[in-house]
């Protein structure tokens, strides 16, 4: 009986996550209805809370896939409760991604849940565990962009449309960055089980610096331009224009003041 109760509590959705969901819902409603006196503040809270929700779901996908692949330890670690405070590196997984959104409008992938890989047999399972997180971002991006590629924007308030466009930008950048085959990122985790032992051993010391390496490359104007050209192309194929993502980011950064160019949008 105690074991059953413990396992149930290990999978119960955390009040912390429910609170973040509530903030997302309330600020999303405020953005939609124009209830907030300062729409930029509502958009900031809505996008930030929704972004944190996606981060939690990203890590939950890793943990849940690991559970079904043989790592039963993820429950005891609290990973199945969707509580971001239970993550191995809360700073990397929540705080830094939010800071990067505020500073640069880019979806920063973060590493959080510790999977006991020794409990898992089969290379396909290891690859699927790594892929589960960024696939969640892909799914989130599909949901955010659905009104655009379904031509279902009639009646959608402008501010809410801009907020969705910016949130979609974050999801697409997170998915693309995560799928890069760079040590320390999920993309490398997908291919790692298929590499030889010697290659994995040589690459392992570089894993903690993989994300830093990617962002150092993004500081190069040429690489940055190519990266965001790819992001823009993906978003355009989903019905979102540069104008909508730009205005979404401008509205998100409410502390900069109103943007007349975006305010005049229909």
Which characteristics define this entry?
mainly alpha; 68% helix; metal-binding; zinc; single chain; 0% strand; peptidase activity; 266 residues; disordered N terminus
Q: Would you give an account of this structure?
A:
The protein has 266 residues and is mainly alpha-helical. The chain is built from 13 helices and no strands. The N terminus is likely disordered.
Which structural class is indicated by helix and strand composition? mainly alpha
Radius of gyration: 19 Å
**Number of continuous helical runs:** 13
- Low-pLDDT parts are 1-6
Percentage of residues in DSSP E strands: under 5%
Average pLDDT score:
87
List the SSEs and their pairings.
Elements: H1 2-10, H2 15-33, H3 39-69, H4 73-76, H5 90-104, H6 123-149, H7 158-178, H8 186-191, H9 197-203, H10 210-218, H11 221-237, H12 242-252, H13 260-263
Subcellular location: Cell membrane
Cofactor: Zn(2+)
Family: Belongs to the peptidase M50B family.
Question: How is this structure best summarized?
Answer:
Helices cover 68% and strands 0% of the residues.
């Amino acid at each position: 009986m105690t074991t059953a109760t413990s396992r149930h509590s290990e999978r119960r959705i955390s009040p912390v996550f429910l609170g973040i969901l509530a903030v997302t819902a309330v600020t999303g409603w405020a953005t939609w209805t124009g209830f907030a006196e300062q729409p930029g503040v509502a958009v900031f809270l809505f996008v930030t809370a929704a972004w944190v929700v996606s981060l939690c779901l990203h890590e939950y996908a890793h943990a849940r896939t690991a559970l079904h692949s043989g790592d039963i330890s993820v429950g005891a670690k609290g990973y199945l409760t969707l509580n971001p405070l239970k993550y191995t590196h809360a700073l990397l997984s929540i705080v830094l991604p939010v800071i990067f959104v505020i500073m640069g409008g880019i979806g920063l992938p973060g590493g959080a849940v510790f999977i006991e890989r020794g409990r898992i047999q089969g290379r396909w399972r290891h690859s699927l565990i790594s892929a589960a997180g960024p696939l969640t971002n892909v799914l989130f991006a599909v949901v955010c962009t659905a009104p655009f590629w379904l031509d279902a924007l009639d009646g959608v308030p402008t501010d809410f449309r801009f907020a969705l466009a910016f949130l979609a930008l974050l999801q697409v950048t997170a998915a693309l960055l995560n799928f890069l085959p760079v040590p320390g990122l999920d993309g490398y985790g997908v291919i790692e089980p298929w590499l030889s032992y010697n290659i994995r051993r040589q690459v392992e010391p570089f894993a903690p610096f993989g994300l830093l390496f990617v962002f150092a490359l993004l500081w190069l104007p040429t690489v940055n331009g190519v990266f965001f050209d790819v992001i823009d192309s993906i978003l355009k194929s989903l019905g979102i224009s540069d104008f909508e993502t730009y205005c979404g980011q401008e509205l998100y950064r409410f502390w900069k003041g109103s943007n007349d160019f975006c305010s005049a949008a229909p």
